[in-house]
Amino acid sequence: xxxxxxxxxxxxxxxxxxxxxxxxxxxxxxxxxxxxxxxxxxxxxxxxxxxxxxxxxxxxxxxxxxxxxxxxxxxxxxxxxxxxxxxxxxxxxxxxxxxxxxxxxxxxxxxxxxxxxxxxxxxxxxxxxxxxxxxxxxxxxxxxxxxxxxxxx
Length: 153
Prior knowledge:
The protein is 11% helix and 46% strand. It has one domain: CATH 2.40.50.180. The longest helix has 6 residues, at 117-122. It is mainly beta. A 6-stranded mixed β-sheet has the order 8-1-2-11-10-9.
């Protein structure tokens, strides 16, 4: 028995955050760190969803607007609750700007449903989605597949 890993295989541990009026989540093991919004230097000729780069603990980190990346929301407006969720992509950190980070939570895998087929066929955002989590209060969390979000960058 591994004493370091106390997570149950029947549950997902998620970082839950907000984008516009929705709740989204990524698995915590995909997240390197969460930091406050910081100054970003624009990079010429970069895609619309790339805000630029920043120096994060001595490492140049690309910062993206996750709303623009998902394609179905207007770019984010700067706010005091905005955070950068830093994930690893091909050994390079990528920061994803979100409106706010709500919590880190455990969710039983039985409370996560697949994305409905009709949504998958019609929505750009759905191609980056790995499931829909159901909270006891009736709220839904769209679970993002970080690898898919980052693979075309």
